Amino acid sequence: MQHLRAIGFDADDTLWHNETIFERVHERYRALLAHYHDAATVDRTLFATEMRNLELYGYGIKGFMLSTVETAIELTDGKISAQEIRTIIGLGREMLNHPVELLEGVSEVLATLAPTHELLLITKGDLRDQERKLAKSGIASHFRGIEIVSEKNEPTYTTILQRRGIPPTEFLMVGNSLKSDILPVLALGGSAVHVPYALTWAHERATAVPEAPGRFFQISTLGELPSLLAAPAR
């Protein structure tokens, strides 16, 4: 891949595990409300609440937990007990205190690419929580820039690239979300590498696979990235 100056990396579910933590909490949340509603109703109502609150709360654990409390009150017609609310809040505390678990090969890939490329971390979510995870990850030193944003779309990427003086044609984004990490960058004329994660939040799913020959790539693990970048352009 020629003329590549900068590489952006998503964080959650690209560099470290995230959605599996949410899924384990979802399971415990369903169990807590099981004597009120079936799991499908709980999931459907919670997702609707999250989407309704997204503009106000943004992404991240804190906004998610506020939505779980609101949903619990709604689904129980206000009958949920203070102890059950305390249990839900406790789930959020566990999530915020969860250790950062890097995906396989992350440290090695970043160490390999950092000397030859300008590496950027571009992630969305709660500022304090993302800063906490980055600090605990042990990989912060590999990045020349950290961008924690409220949304990842074309205007956001445009602002980041213009501020750093990076032409889109010299930028590559790596991430697990087609919607947030891949499609906006391709639309700007940049390149992107999709690294699917085992679980994808419904809000981040995109059904259409991009058609951008020579600019869009898909790999199974992040460990394949250095070989992809070293391959001759086709």
UniProtKB/TrEMBL annotation:
SUPFAM superfamilies per UniProt: HAD-like (SSF56784)
* Keyword Hydrolase among record annotations: yes
GO MF, one annotated term: hydrolase activity
Sorted keywords for this record are: Hydrolase
Pfam families per the UniProt record, alphabetical: Hydrolase (PF00702)
Note the superkingdom of the native organism: Bacteria
**Alphabetized InterPro entries for the sequence:** HAD-like_sf (IPR036412), HAD_sf (IPR023214), PGP-like_dom2 (IPR023198), S-2-haloacid_dehalogenase (IPR051540)
Entry protein name: Haloacid dehalogenase domain protein hydrolase
Its source organism is: Opitutus terrae (strain DSM 11246 / JCM 15787 / PB90-1)
